[in-house]
Structures are given as C-alpha cells and as structure tokens.
Amino acid sequence: MTMLRLAASLTAALILNSCSDQAPLQPETAARARAIPLVDHHQHFRSLRTTELYHSHIYKGKTARPNPVAIDADDIIGQLNEAGIKRAVILSLGYWFESPVFGRLPNAHQLVRAENEWTAAEAARFPDRLAAFCSFNPLTDHALRELEWCGSSGKFRGLKMHFGNSKVDIRRPDHAQKVVRVFQAANAARLPMVVHMWTDPTYEEEGAEHATAFLNRILPAAPDVVVQIAHLAGGGRTTEAAFEVFADAIAANDPRTRNLYFDIATSAVPDQLSRADVETLARLLRQVGMDRILYGTDAPVPPNLSAREGWRAFRRLLPLSDEEIMDIADNVAPYMR
After folding, report:
1. Could you give the CA distance from residue 24 to residue 27 in angstroms, rounded to a whole number?
2. What b/e sequence results for 142-157 when a residue is b if at least 16 CB atoms lie within 10 Å of its CB, and e otherwise?
3. What is the pLDDT at residue 95?
4. Distances in Å between the alpha carbon of 119 and those of 157, 220, 332?
5. Predicted pLDDT at 10
6. b/e 267-288 (16+ beta carbons within 10 angstroms → b)
7. What is the spatial distance between Cα 229 and Cα 41, in angstroms, rounded to a whole number?
8. What is the pLDDT of residue 203?
9. Are 23 and 275 in contact (CB under 8 A)?
10. Exposure winner among 8, 98, 200, 329, fewest CB in 10 A?
11. CB atoms within 10 A of CB 107
12. Pairing between β-strand 293-294 and β-strand 158-162 as defined by DSSP bridges
C-alpha cells in the first residue's frame, strides 16, 4: 500500500523535483497561479497556556527551551492577508488540556473552557473573517456539558474533535459509544464538526479499520450536519487505506456520506512523495469529487507551512487540472456560506 508522506518545508518540496522517482512539480500556469482559496477551513490560534503546556511536554527535563509565544487573531489575519484568503475557520485547542498525551491536569475542564472562551473572543475581533470552533475530549464525563455550552453560547460555528490527541479508538465499543453520544448531541444542536481521525503511528496500517468504524458506527449519528474529516483522513500525513474507504463509499452513493467533506491541511507538504503517491492522491480526490475538498492550513508554526506556502505546495505538487485546482480554491463549506 502506497503511503503519502508529509514533510516540514516548502524547500523540501521543491528539491523533490530533482529526483526521478519523486513527484514532479506541475506547470504554474496563469490560471493556476490566480487560484486562491476563499476560505482556510483548518486554522488554529495558540494561547500562552497551550504553548506552555506543549513546551512542558516537549522540553521536559531540558533547561533550554524557547519562550512561549501566542498565536492570536492578528497573527492569523496577517497570514490570510499574505495568502489573499478572505476567511478562516479557527479550531480551538481546548482538547489539549484533557489529553492523555500531556498527562492528567487537576483543573482540566476549567482550562478547556478558558481556552474555548479565549478562542471565541479572539475570533470575535474579526467577525467577518474568522469563525471559531469549540473543542473538548469526547471521552470525558463532561463532554456533553461542554458541547451544550458551546452550542448555547452563540460564540461557535461548530466543534473540533481530535481522536489522536484524545486517544480515542472508535474500534473499541466503549469509546464508540461515547463518541456516538457526542455526535448525536451535535446533530441535535446543528453543530458541524471537524474530526481529526488519526490516532497513532499504527494508523497507517490500520487506517481502513478506523475509517470503516467511523463510517459504520459514528457517522450515522450525525446525518444532518457537515462532518469534515481533517487531513484527508490522516494526521500530519494522509493514509491511502483510510481515505479509500470513504472514497469507495462516496462512489457507491452511500447516503451516510451525504454531508461528508475533507480538508487538505498538511496533505501536500511532501518529504518523500513519489510520482505514484501524488497520482494516487489525485485519483482519490477525483473519486470523492472536488466539491467535497476544502482547503486548510493547520497551525501556522514550524514545521507546518504558512497559509500561502501550503496552498502553493498543494497546487504545484498535485497532478490536477487547472479547473480542478480552481474548484478546490472556490469551495466553501456549507457552515461558512
């Protein structure tokens, strides 16, 4: 099974063109160069609290560490302006404070709420350009309470769930049951969802199992709202096995996929993308239909690319027609219309 690997810099993407087996760059026609996404459907703020949490984990035991720096609305607006993108969806990082990755925090729920509130307040500074999504760990006892607050507050356009960060395995009946309850409540509240399905490194081999469980157990619980699968069903990398499950279901006109969309965040920032990799990805994109593909950047911190560089890498690496590239740029999720 071909794996679609992702990397950290646009420079690496350009170097690939010199290798015979690597993905060649597409001709930068005038039409291709003019295509600019109307919406960045996958962006993040990062408060000082989340940055400090991240640093305490990554630099544990080390005396030298960078100073924590927040990414706020001004930073994202600057990124959008540089890329020529009009609007962005801001996905709260509140779920970090309930993540087993960072350990148990005694006041986790209060920190989740504080992060969600800060994200909403920052987005509200530019209401015509930024839309906030609330977040939490769907396995916690207070998940439904946080969802109810998010929906009733009027501050959020939808919800973000990160199965990997929250250590959700929807193949487990107990996990699936809790996630289904969240999806049912989100559907009742008419809250669209962005879902990061990737869970751990073994997902590359088991991606089809996760995608099948999502399609069979989870997705039917939210038939009336948009569900946006982040990173084309991967997490920092796209997994063909997972994405192909959804592509096959869509090609078969499976009614469960009626409101299913995919964002391309970090899907074409290659390290070792081969010609076969990008051709496979292009085939799968065509199979699900370009109208379901949404542009997204992810958090604009290294090793991720900026909004401008991320879009440029995608349009230059994917063997899509100019018309297909322009279709993706023009796509706007129903929740942003």
Report:
1. 9
2. bbbebbebbbeeebbb
3. 97
4. 12, 29, 22
5. 30
6. bbbbbbbbeebbebbbebbeeb
7. 11
8. 57
9. yes
10. 200
11. 10
12. unpaired
CB contact set of 155 (below 8 Å; sequence gap of 6+): 117, 120, 124, 132, 134
CA distance 270 to 264: 13
pLDDT of residue 9: 31
Alpha-carbon distance values, 290 to 187, 207, 221, 295, 336 (Å): 25, 22, 25, 11, 17
CB-based contacts of 317, cutoff 8 Å, min separation 6: 13, 23, 25, 26, 268, 270, 273, 278
The answer for 306, left when phi > 0, alpha when psi is -120 to 50, beta otherwise, is beta
Type of residue found at 224: D
Kindly tell me the sign of the dihedral angle through the C-alpha atoms of 32, 38, 43, 46. positive
pLDDT of residue 126: 98
- Helices H, strands E: what count in the chain? 12, 8
What's the pLDDT at 202?
Answer: 60
Q: Contact, 238 vs 267, CB < 8 A?
A: yes
pLDDT, averaged per 10 consecutive residues of the chain (337 residues), comes to 30 39 90 96 96 86 81 97 98 96 91 98 98 98 97 98 94 97 98 89 74 96 98 74 93 97 85 81 94 95 89 94 98 97
